[in-house]
Amino acid sequence: MQKNTNPAFDLDVTKYLAQFRVPVFDVDAMMAAHRKNVEAVTAANQCAFEGVSALMRRQGEIAREALENYSTAVKELMADGTVEEKAVRQAEFARNAYDKSVANVRELTDMVAKTNEEAFGLINNRVRESLDEVQGIVAGAARTAEAAAPKSAPAKK
pTM of the full predicted structure? Predict the structure, then answer.
């Protein structure tokens, strides 16, 4: 049997690619970085879920308190007294209800802001870490490519 002597079959592609200094990325490091990204998003979602749950619980408490206050106010307004006394009680009730509503809105707004800050903080920290990791991975790949490339002789003049 005749041996194939075609030089195209003896071509070593890795020798030719090495001269182009193609970087080789650390796949394990990239996977670890993406795993950390998923963990950060999961933590942020958990934080947001807990914040929304707390918000909903507090809104339920506020609604219950409001119904109790309205019930008490109606009983007081239905009690004996002059029209002037009832008008004063009604004005007091309206002022107290307004003040309580404003305080409740502030409390709920603070809860939402705190939850947003915590969830965004988790994502923000991870983005910063991720950028540092990617920079390290790319720098490492460039060093690897530089080290793997054959040293060429200085150009003749």
Answer: 0.67
